[in-house]
Structure formats: C-alpha cells, structure tokens
Design brief:
The chain starts with 5 loop residues before the first strand and ends with a helix. With about 230 residues, it is an alpha/beta fold. It has helices spanning about 45-50, 70-80, 95-105, 110-125, 140-150, 170-180, 215-229; strands at about 5-15, 20-30, 30-35, 60-65, 65, 80, 155-160, 185-190, 200-205, 210-215. The protein binds adenosine-5'-triphosphate. The site of adenosine-5'-triphosphate has 10 residues, from helix 1.
Length: about 230
Amino acid sequence: MDLPSIRLENVSVRYDDRAVLRDVSISLDEQRIGVIGANGAGKSTLSRLLNGLVLPTDGAVHVGGLNTRQHSKQIRREVGFVFQNPANQIIMPIVSDDIAFGLKNLSLPKSERQQRVAETLDELNISHLADRESHTLSGGEQQMVALASVLAMRPRTIVFDEPTTMLDLRNRLALQHEIAKLSQRAIVVTHDLEILEDFERVLVITDGTIAFDGDPAEAIAHYRQWSHA
Ligand SMILES: Nc1ncnc2c1ncn2[C@@H]1O[C@H](COP(=O)(O)OP(=O)(O)OP(=O)(O)O)[C@@H](O)[C@H]1O
C-alpha cells in the first residue's frame, strides 16, 4: 500500500496563550510509529493534528501534500482516528449499524457496506457483537467496535489514542496482533510500552517538544530515564 507522508512544519499549538506543542517539525513515513511521554506532554494534541481534529496555531500539517487547514474532508478519509474513549465514537444503537454508518458517506452500494461490516467484525473476532445494542457493551467491547468502525472505512493511516486502556489481556493481544498485520500505517499514542516492541519508530514527547525520536528500545530507555530524573 502506498502510504502518504505526513509532515509537520514548525507546528505550535497554544491554548489560551499556553504552549502545548512548540515548533515541532517532523516527517512521518514509517508504517508503525509510537508516541509516548508523560501526562499532559502534548501526545493527544500531536495525534489530533494528523487528521485536522486540531489545527496548528502556527505552522502547517500536510498529509500526502494536502494541508489539514484546507482539506479536512479528504484528510479525514485518509487518516482514521480511534479515540481513547470509544463512547465518543459509537453513534448508532446497534453495533453493525454503527460500523456501517461511516460507510454511507463513502457512497458504497448496500451489499458492499454489509460485506465490509461482516469482514471487519470477523477480522477482529467480534462477529458475535454484530446485533448487540451498543450501550450494553463493556468498555473493552466498545473499544473493539470503535476500532472496527474506523477499520471498515479503510483509511491509509490510523491514529490510535491510548487504544489499550480498557482492554483485558486477550483483547490487548488481539489489538496488538491487529496493529501488527495492518497494511495501513498505524500511529499509536500509548502508555502501554510493550505494544511498541516491533514498531519502527517511537517519538518521546516532553513538555510540547520531541525529546527523542528513534527505535523503540532506545526511546523507551530515554523515557524511563527521564521519568526517574
Ligand atoms: N482543548 C483544550 N483546551 C485547553 N487545554 C487543552 C486542550 N486540550 C489539551 N489541553 C492541555 O494541553 C496539554 C497537553 O494535553 P494532551 O492531551 O495533548 O496531553 P497528553 O500527552 O496526551 O496527556 P495524557 O497522557 O494525560 O493523555 C495538557 O496540559 C492539557 O490540559
């Protein structure tokens, strides 16, 4: 799969004059990229810049050459976002309808929508949830359904914001396996350092800047050292 480059150019984000990201410039080209760092460091803000959920106060973000400021609709299709709290993402009362919901905007025929829903549920081993009422799902089940609704759209990049917080060991391993076999790019913000083992690149965010950018073992060592300091 041809993966569009994501570029941040001198990006700063401020909320009420408080700098949350400061002059960040990076190009994200790898297929598996982790983002780690302390609470409040700016990780979610960074991840939300990648599909235009947050716009830079200064600087620019480009996805495959398109600026998130001007091309939000195309970029949302290109970069899917799995929220930390799946309740923010689940809209429809029945699981299979929820997964089909986003597909309606892609103008796919009904038969193809149904097929994609079934395939995605099967891929995540959650076919048994298809007819469940969304509000009766456990937290972990909701997290898997939220992931399914993004996967079904087949974006070429998927951003995960702390995807394992509600998962038991089995679902955590299932998610890890799912991320490993994605043909898409995965960018994962997490405090769960183990899931980053096979990633190509990990960014350590400290106080709104990229304090380390490299392979997972070195990045985790850097983060541990910083946390003990
Ligand atoms: N919409 C907003 N308005 C005001 N402040 C915000 C907003 N979003 C985030 N912040 C602040 O920006 C800082 C960075 O937040 P962010 O969510 O990016 O951190 P994080 O590294 O993902 O943290 P955590 O690990 O706790 O989830 C925090 O101090 C947060 O309170």
